[in-house]
Amino acid sequence: YTSERGGIRIEQAKSQIIEGNMVIGIGSGSTVVHVAKSIAETIKNVKCQAVKDGKPCDLNVVCIPSSFQARQLIIENNLTLGSLDNYPEVDWTIDGADEVDEKNHIIKGGGGCLTQEKILASCSKDFYIAGDYTKYSKKLGTVWKRGIPIEVIPISYVAIKNKIEKQFGGEAVLRMAVKKAGPVVTDNNNFILDWKFPECSCDWETLETVFKMMPGIVEVGLFLKMATKIYIGTAEGDVKVYC
Ligand code: DER
């Protein structure tokens, strides 16, 4: 897939699957739209072989969604739809990112799907990120200016907003919908606060832990050192691999 801002090649998944199933997690956002298409084309064009009881067998690829959007992508690309209920162990997941820094700190949640994305990533043996060069930075916050997405239980959003702003500064803004009156409602029926943090040399690990301990916070859009590999498409159409 080559976007107008850079190229991303999807590395062929090379893995020996004994059970005859390869379980792939599908992330959310616009980059993954192209990734899902590429996966579907690869499966269609490349006869995927597995080994079962020592004998070659057809590789059955099952895709697990990280959101309603990802579920639609899987169906639209005629990929086999699974769920964590029946495939709780995922071989690898591929997803986009809002910003990636050089320490494998990632901001996600621009598309509002952070909670199920992080659950899926945590159930995956490998977690791959794909994005273009506009997503890569030396210091988190220099690229993504809309704040750290924080999914909250609706009744708590004002209390959490006040706590975060009082304790950590900055501004936690309720994410409002564009084509619907009122706030964005996530796939989990929650709200999102986008925390525009002050200039800081934040200890992201500590911050994530403190936020996750706050009653009412469901998930934080910080994916810290979770990525196995990060594929960044350059303006020249090459791919740089980090991690
Ligand atoms: O909401 C999300 O976490 C998305 O994966 C986002 O981080 C990337 O979206 P994009 O591929 O549309 O830039």
Automatic annotation (TrEMBL):
Residue ranges crossing the lipid bilayer per the database entry: none
Domain of life: Eukaryota
Compartment list: Nucleus
The family this protein is said to belong to: Belongs to the ribose 5-phosphate isomerase family.
Protein name, entry field: ribose-5-phosphate isomerase
Organism listed in the record: Parthenolecanium corni
Taxonomic lineage of the native organism: Eukaryota, Metazoa, Ecdysozoa, Arthropoda, Hexapoda
